[in-house]
Design brief:
The protein has 2 domains: about 5-85, no CATH class; about 90-415, Rhopdopsin 7-helix transmembrane proteins (Up-down Bundle). Helix 8 runs parallel beside helix 10. About 70% of the residues lie in helices and about 5% in strands. It has helices at about 45-65, 90-120, 120-125, 125-155, 160-195, 195-205, 205-225, 245-290, 295-310, 315-325, 335-375, 380-405, 405-415, 425-435, 455-470, 475-500, and strands at about 5, 10, 15-20, 25-30, 35, 40. It has a 4-stranded antiparallel sheet with strand order 1-2-5-6, with no helix packed on it. It has a two-stranded antiparallel sheet with strand order 3-4.
């Protein structure tokens, strides 16, 4: 209706929203269309129009941010840039940071997949199939989910239609859930390797690993499909998010996070207790007596055979426990290996919990609040975005954990980054041979020993003993040779134990 304010009589006001209070209307978001003055009907001046447009944009932006049912269609095209809540400098910084994160996720997980695909040693371990499945889900997060998430984050609104929203949210839930469930499957695999090394080694076949991977992706699909079947709110242009229905939120958060987290805490907790118990037994054995030379050599061979059969740290732990109970000696470097295993478990659980726990606490809390109070809790947008992107960081951290704690992945990563794809197996064999025996090999691996440097450590002792043996006589020469052989065996066993423990990842 026409109204009078100052010198102008306004007509044709566009009412965007009206609130009634005791029969009176308070108007918000009024758009000035025409004004009358003493000189007749005319369009408003540029200054008046600019002020009115600014007030109108501010109100549209506020409504769009505060109300989930306020459509982007109600926001004029000239107001769209105002939906972005970042300054130009902050927008550039956020865009660069999120792009670097996305690139790191894609590169790191692609290195994991290529390593298993090219390195024969990694292909021989069935557990690495689970790691490939995990890397595949994380890689797809970087390719299918994060580019759209970056656009949504920087623009301040979802610029695509409803079908794109359904596809994006379904991929997000499917792939993030798959990543979490793959971590849970890896923890189950590690636990069985340690507690049932011989029985599980027979059952740990590629076909069984494929069955575990299929279950992971099937369960992930069961969590991501319900919104596509109708368990969601109607699509509002400009806003795209997860389904907020109470039943689905409880079902999704418990199935995708809280159950896997509980399983991982229990299994890795038992592995941690076993490692601590072994470390304490080893320390008591060390204080109780010295090392036995020949019995230790036999025990070392037994441990290496069992480790090869189970293809993991589990069999090594099992055999070491049996030897300690029988009063045999403690292998050299065992405490360091236990420490490394404990650090690995801490890195896996710490990173996973730190990245995903805040987001899922927020999601289930918002669902319960809405169910109890009947109204939606308006959480700060920056808080929601921070927790969401923190969960995506977990896909970036997984390859870093492999490279840090597992040498079987760390060395292939280096060669792949140096573009040594064709000769990667030859180079890895050469390095392994040189490190295990302290001798130059016929491969392409480089070593200080090729430049004239002699053997070091236990190998140096063995070389010295062999060179001195011809000059020694009788029992003295044989004693020197036995001591040097035992030292070399202990050194090799220490490296083997450390490599086996690295497979805890």
């Amino acid at each position: 209706r026409p109204g009078v304010s100052g010198l102008f009589s306004y007509r044709g006001l566009q009412l965007l929203e009206a609130e009634s209070s005791s029969g009176l209307f308070s108007y918000r978001g009024l758009q000035l269309l025409e004004a009358e003055s003493s000189s007749g009907t005319q369009s408003p001046s540029a200054e008046v129009a600019a002020v009115a447009a600014a007030m109108n944009c501010s109100e549209q932006v506020r409504l769009f941010r505060d109300r989930a049912d306020f459509s982007l269609d109600n926001v004029s095209s000239g107001c769209l840039p105002s939906l972005n809540r970042y300054s130009p400098a902050a927008r550039a910084a956020v865009g660069i940071a999120l792009s670097v994160l996305t690139s790191g996720i894609c590169l790191g997980n692609l290195l994991v997949i290529m390593s298993v695909g090219l390195v024969k040693k990694l292909q021989s371990s069935p557990s690495n199939f689970l790691i490939v499945s995990l890397a595949s889900s994380d890689l797809l997060v970087g390719l299918l989910v994060l580019p759209t998430a970056i656009a949504y984050q920087l623009l301040g609104y979802f610029p695509f239609p409803d079908t794109a929203c359904d596809f994006w949210t379904s991929c997000d839930v499917l792939l993030c859930t798959s990543s979490i469930l793959n971590l849970c499957a890896i923890s189950i695999d590690r636990y069985l390797v340690i507690t049932k090394p011989f029985e599980y080694a027979v059952k740990r076949t590629p076909s069984r690993m494929a069955a575990m991977i299929s279950c992971v992706w099937l369960l992930s699909a069961c969590i991501s499909i319900p919104p596509m079947l109708g368990a969601k709110e109607p699509f509002v242009p400009g806003n795209c998010g997860y389904s907020e229905t109470f039943g689905y939120q409880i079902y999704a958060t418990i199935g995708a996070f809280y159950i896997p987290l509980s399983v991982m805490l229990v299994l890795y907790g038992n592995i941690f207790k076993l490692a601590r118990r072994m470390a304490k037994a080893d320390e008591q054995q060390k204080l109780g007596g010295g090392l036995a030379e020949e019995p230790q050599a036999a025990a070392t061979g037994e441990a290496e055979a069992e480790a090869g059969a189970a293809a993991s740290v589990g069999s090594a732990l099992k055999s070491l426990r049996r030897r300690n109970n029988n009063g045999r000696g403690r292998p050299a470097g065992r405490s360091n290996s236990d420490t490394k295993a404990i650090k690995t478990l801490g890195a896996i659980m710490g990173c996973f919990t730190f990245c995903w726990l805040p987001f899922f606490i927020m999601q289930i809390s918002l669902a319960i609040w809405k169910k109890v109070t009947g109204s939606k809790f308006d959480i700060e947008k920056n808080v929601f975005d921070t927790f969401l992107w923190l969960g995506y960081v977990n896909s970036f951290m997984n390859p870093i954990i492999y490279a840090k704690f597992n040498r079987d992945f760390r060395m292939p990563f280096k060669h792949l980054l140096l573009c040594h794809c064709r000769s990667i197996n030859e180079r890895l064999r050469s390095q392994q041979y040189s490190e295990q025996y302290g001798l130059p090999s016929s491969g392409r691996g480089t070593s200080k020993r090729r430049l004239g440097a002699g053997p070091t450590g236990a190998n140096a002792g063995a070389a010295a003993a062999n060179s001195a043996a011809p000059g020694a006589s009788g029992r003295a020469g044989r004693s020197v040779r036995r001591a040097s052989d035992a030292s070399l065996r202990r050194s090799r066993h220490q490296k083997a134990a450390e490599n086996n423990n690295e497979q805890m990842v």
